[in-house]
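Posting for a labmate who doesn't have an account.
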Amino acid sequence: MLGIGAAERDAADHQAIVGQPQHLAHSNYCCADGGTHVRLSMAADALAEHLVDRRDDTALAFLATPTDTFAVPAEEVRIANDAYSSLGIGALRS
């Protein structure tokens, strides 16, 4: 967007994203070294929060690594295991 200032460009970019008529999916596939990774992750999280606050149809997606772990309530693990069992798939580790 040549010829317009940063504030106008930011407003136009904001409207281009938030104003989409389709359902919105925000994916956080960020990776960098050291402190840059922390800043990049924080920026992606801030963008996700901004979008979710303004669009109730926003879906969030994250790419986990094999070493990522997530703490979830035991009841959620039971529900997931029941769902996998109904498909003939083995249980998750709890």
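Reply:
Got it, the structure tokens are right above this. Residues 34-54 form the longest helix (21 residues).
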